[in-house]
Amino acid sequence: MSNFSSTNSTNEEYKKITKILTIGIPVTTIIVNVPAIVMIIWIVARKEKVKNCHLLSIGITDALVGISAFLMAETYLYTEKIFSYYDCWIRYYMFCLSLSASMLHVLGICGQRLKIVLEKTAVQTQQYNRKFGWLVTVASWTLSIIINSIPFSIWTQDHNLSMCSLDTLFSGYERKFSLYIGTSIGFYSLLVVLTMLILSRHLWLLGKRHPSNAWGEKDRRIFVTVCIIAIVFLVTSTPLVCILLTYDHLGDNKRSKRSACVLISLLNSAINPVIYLYRVQKFRNILRKIVLCGKFNNTVNPQSNQNRINPPNLEVSAL
């Protein structure tokens, strides 16, 4: 009798912890991305001169990841509730859409750093950074819509759902969907790895051949920031890729295992704003201005605001 009570108590504790994590992580993701959204509005409204503004633009996408994950979490926690087909379809489609867009956004940021190094210059205007931020945002969402609309339009059809889940939504095609999404996320991860490897190699060769044309402190910090974002992305997305690609070997508890990996992948969207707010001084200054209602004044050496890599002086090196 005591063993039964102990088991029952353990199950209750497990359900309570599961509920806290399932709701808490999406809510946390939304909250931590609010400052980035507020800063974007502040920068646009007050026409602040901010380079690398595209790092903030991912905050909008990550906030949407948190909102869609919260809506999807309801279907996992309240299994006794009856969700209509279209309600269930929208919840899962929006989550897959925003998660893919966030991952593609990270890839775009890594690609921008590589483009700068390949051109051997990082001299950027405020207008260029804003255009690039919008380009990455629009491109990531456009590709995400195309990639996710294919399975959701082909492998789903209107029918009565016993419960709202990917397995019931893609009834008969759940294995194909799992492999499709797993392959897509794995491909994003592979591109991020390749981009960062090429970027690191070019930087190493540039420093080796022309040590006198080293980066400034600000350039190094931006590069390290992008590296940290890429590493966090890989660490948080890898478990989800593994689970999705090994669908046939998950046994009977597929949904719980997949949900745990989804929560891990959400940490990427929750950690991103912490990284760039901590690493980029200009963003911290703007946040202080907002908190202090514009009274904060930071004096910066104009030369330190230059974000550039001086191209190698070939004439001097030849001498």
From TrEMBL:
SUPFAM superfamilies: Family A G protein-coupled receptor-like. It is a multi-pass membrane protein. InterPro entries: GPCR_Rhodpsn, GPCR_Rhodpsn_7TM. The keyword Transmembrane applies. It is found in: Cell membrane. One of its GO terms (cellular component) is plasma membrane. The chain crosses the membrane at residues 20-43, 55-78, 90-111, 132-157, 177-200, 221-247, 259-278. The keyword Glycoprotein applies. Gene3D superfamilies: Rhodopsin 7-helix transmembrane proteins. Residues 32-276 form the G-protein coupled receptors family 1 profile domain. It holds the Pfam family 7tm_1. GO terms for molecular function: G protein-coupled receptor activity. CDD domains: 7tm_classA_rhodopsin-like. Keywords: Cell membrane, G-protein coupled receptor, Glycoprotein, Membrane, Receptor, Transducer, Transmembrane, Transmembrane helix. This is S1PR2. It comes from Mytilus edulis.
